[in-house]
């Protein structure tokens, strides 16, 4: 195996081969050892999913190769220059808790930090940041360069190598490596992670023109990869579309005609390892809000015949639609347009909300219908992308293709949209690809313990009909799955069970856990009568009628009481916990709700422990199931009874029959006897199913 220093030199050679004018023979000699190594994991694609997958696989202990078409675009923000938001910010926090890259990269590259949804409870707050594109890309590349056991190679993957499966494992095929488009000999690996983004049979649209590609300025991906997935492996694929707005020259915009939206005065970092962001509070840049006009709608309608992308059948993102889709779906309305900076020194603005695919001259006409941009100039026109995705119900919760050993998928190839969704999938696919290659069992995250678990379960259990975006409303237990406690939920598990978290982060999480437990115990032990509490906290609005005993936790739940107030009243026992003042306040507010949810969480976890064998022939299973239900189960092949309850088309009777089958065959992990369940147990699962469906 090459040493860590050799890998760094190798990446340096690859990155600067054009600068040094190396000829093909010299370049191939410099990187020849890449093709001679048996890697544990190969990751294809250098976007958010690919970078997280490669870094995670290496952290788990696998010798990993990351293949990207261009070294310089690894970690690039292909569309909007931002990270996080409502639902998405929770994913960033969880990726960071598992030692991922994007949270720390956001803290380094952020130039405008804000917490969205502050008017609601902390459980649904959305940490968000505008990013400096160059800083973000440089941070990601620097992290990958300094990651042991990780090699980066520039190239385009032509095809996957497929062999006969291991008969002792489920699956009809086995992926054993890749072949690059330059005709080099195969590169072997035990696991391959595909994170192709919009490049899988991608097509670019602008006006009536169409060309192959997944991102403007980059070469299209090889058609051989799509052919392998569809024809050789027999995977069901679909077609989705997305788009990006034109980039506007900043100096050509009259920002005095837009509403200024300043950042938070005290930036909140994404990463649990950071106490502050790289950008100082006073150095942050504002964003600007403006709106469309009737003139925008007129230009859209007049140019529909020139826009072939909007006429295509492929589904676009419901929650980030093009301006054409907005106008057609909501005629006569005024739509928000956010003017967002792309960097500290950048002279470009990103007009969030103006994704469009009309001809460039029509795009210019449209943006000039908005008062603040009446003299605007376009730096780069907007365009649309259509691309293939693999129906994600063909994946296991480990994001491994059920029918193909050693093949994992993550990101937009699974039908999702957004950097954060891609990063979350990439990390988990990388973890399991590495564990599989190292002969360790794959691991899954439950929807009861993380938004990543919700994301993956939604994909593999329900599939997608349009690009999937994360929202807090998708999580049943969002009061427990908060941004503030992602480290306590996932970091310890990531170190002790998964193996993807460093000892430094683990020790910090243990310190935080112990300190919070100590502080909460102190608050709980601090018990006074309401009369004495009013004396200690005269500004607190507390009923004078009541005269009961309240603990510090009870009092901290009051809206007008902060931990700082309690620490000032009881400095001897609380002042040394000021580091966690906000977290303690949030914990006090949500603890009663979380305690009420515990039984429901335990019920779902019990269902998830009732595994369904992957070799079941549902079409001939000797239980009473309708033909429709058999087809659904055979197509999706849920891994647990819990996943089966969430499938569209399942009936209460079918769930009961599956439950009885699991009990009879001894598949329930927590119980090995074969006693026939009584009617009360059956009734319980019928009630559970009905509740889930509602």
Automatic annotation (TrEMBL):
<dbReference type="InterPro" id="IPR026904">
    <property type="entry name" value="MnmG_C"/>
</dbReference>
<protein>
    <recommendedName>
        <fullName>5-taurinomethyluridine-[tRNA] synthase subunit MTO1, mitochondrial</fullName>
    </recommendedName>
</protein>
<dbReference type="InterPro" id="IPR044920">
    <property type="entry name" value="MnmG_C_subdom_sf"/>
</dbReference>
<dbReference type="GO" id="GO:0070899">
    <property type="term" value="P:mitochondrial tRNA wobble uridine modification"/>
</dbReference>
<dbReference type="InterPro" id="IPR049312">
    <property type="entry name" value="GIDA_C_N"/>
</dbReference>
<dbReference type="InterPro" id="IPR036188">
    <property type="entry name" value="FAD/NAD-bd_sf"/>
</dbReference>
<keyword id="KW-0285">Flavoprotein</keyword>
<dbReference type="GO" id="GO:0005739">
    <property type="term" value="C:mitochondrion"/>
</dbReference>
<dbReference type="Pfam" id="PF01134">
    <property type="entry name" value="GIDA"/>
</dbReference>
<dbReference type="InterPro" id="IPR047001">
    <property type="entry name" value="MnmG_C_subdom"/>
</dbReference>
<dbReference type="GO" id="GO:0005829">
    <property type="term" value="C:cytosol"/>
</dbReference>
<dbReference type="GO" id="GO:0050660">
    <property type="term" value="F:flavin adenine dinucleotide binding"/>
</dbReference>
<dbReference type="Pfam" id="PF13932">
    <property type="entry name" value="SAM_GIDA_C"/>
</dbReference>
<feature type="domain" description="tRNA uridine 5-carboxymethylaminomethyl modification enzyme C-terminal subdomain">
    <location>
        <begin position="588"/>
        <end position="660"/>
    </location>
</feature>
<comment type="function">
    <text>Component of the GTPBP3-MTO1 complex that catalyzes the 5-taurinomethyluridine (taum(5)U) modification at the 34th wobble position (U34) of mitochondrial tRNAs (mt-tRNAs), which plays a role in mt-tRNA decoding and mitochondrial translation. Taum(5)U formation on mammalian mt-tRNA requires the presence of both GTPBP3-mediated GTPase activity and MTO1 catalytic activity.</text>
</comment>
<dbReference type="InterPro" id="IPR002218">
    <property type="entry name" value="MnmG-rel"/>
</dbReference>
<comment type="subunit">
    <text>Homodimer; forms a dimer in the presence of potassium. Interacts with GTPBP3; forms the GTPBP3-MTO1 complex composed of homodimers of GTPBP3 and MTO1.</text>
</comment>
<keyword id="KW-0274">FAD</keyword>
<dbReference type="GO" id="GO:0030488">
    <property type="term" value="P:tRNA methylation"/>
</dbReference>
<dbReference type="InterPro" id="IPR004416">
    <property type="entry name" value="MnmG"/>
</dbReference>
<comment type="similarity">
    <text>Belongs to the MnmG family.</text>
</comment>
<dbReference type="Pfam" id="PF21680">
    <property type="entry name" value="GIDA_C_1st"/>
</dbReference>
<dbReference type="InterPro" id="IPR040131">
    <property type="entry name" value="MnmG_N"/>
</dbReference>
